[in-house]
Amino acid sequence: xxxxxxxxxxxxxxxxxxxxxxxxxxxxxxxxxxxxxxxxxxxxxxxxxxxxxxxxxxxxxxxxxxxxxxxxxxxxxxxxxxxxxxxxxxxxxxxxxxxxxxxxxxxxxxxxxxxxxxxxxxxxxxxxxxxxxxxxxxxxxxxxxxxxxxxxxxxxxxxxxxxxxxxxxxxxxxxxxxxxxxxxxxxxxxxxxxxxxxxxxxxxxxxxxxxxxxxxxxxxxxxxxxxxxxxxxxxxxxxxxxxxxxxxxxxxxxxxxxxxxxxxxxxxxxxxxxxxxxxxxxxxxxxxxxxxxxxxxxxxxxxxxxxxxxxxxxxxxxxxxxxxxxxxxxxx
Length: 332
Ligand SMILES: NC(=O)c1ccc[n+]([C@@H]2O[C@H](COP(=O)([O-])OP(=O)(O)OC[C@H]3O[C@@H](n4cnc5c(N)ncnc54)[C@H](OP(=O)(O)O)[C@@H]3O)[C@@H](O)[C@H]2O)c1
Hints:
By secondary structure, the chain is of the alpha/beta class. The protein contains twelve helices and 15 strands.
């Protein structure tokens, strides 16, 4: 099969098309003929050598795919209600930038009715991450307020749409007025340009001084102290990335006076059973919203993976330029 390799750590051009042996599905797994592969910021970190591959995972980049089931563990397929030829999208721990990809059956979901493979490939990584962090760890409830840092990111456009569909008020930050407009169009109630306004002041103003109930943070660093300032009583801060650094000096007094929870997680190294439980919850609570049109795909660009040079390099260059709104997808 053709695949995109990280030939050495470095600039996007280190991503090159290579021939690799076809992978084989083992127990509890299925093999997918990949039509489209989603691109995520963690792929960029991996290409630069800052995100080690978890033990047992493919060294190829790519955390999500969509395509057709070619073969698989018959018992596991039957138990999940899948058969050879079905279109699925899958969360994987690596190996998604390839024409063929093995995935645990438990981490696969049907391509939602009415969605293309390109659209479905944009789903797993952000939907699993947002569900697990905002709704499970962050316990966001109907009627509460969520502050999303980076509202126009792949993660952000997913978090805006699920949170709105489930009855929360959504405030986002983004780095330009255009990105703020795009977030409002997706349903965000308020968007703050973090380059021209102070999100702490704005979030307090927008909540009548109460503060927000949950913050989804992909920045960390000095944002952590500021996020603690704008959390309401019993507020939850969920950290999913440290783009702004790992250290922050916080006011611990606020944490105890307001009974705050500071948590976080990283999805990729978690076991199949954990990811399978998220897949079940998504299928039950979120997939109907995809099929009804309440939640829409947000695809910024697609690139042909096997082109010369590989579209994967262009996709990563675009992601690093931060010009995109929503998802970037590779096609095969
Ligand atoms: N923990 C996990 O399990 C997990 C899983 C998946 C992804 N992630 C992380 O989640 C983040 C988003 O991933 P993605 O694939 O959606 O990437 P992406 O589309 O490239 O998004 C990165 C976002 O970070 C925002 N950002 C950077 N600095 C900011 C700041 N100072 N204030 C507010 N926003 C800021 C950017 O906003 P502007 O362009 O507006 O500046 C951009 O929207 C990445 O850091 C990724 O590593 C974590």
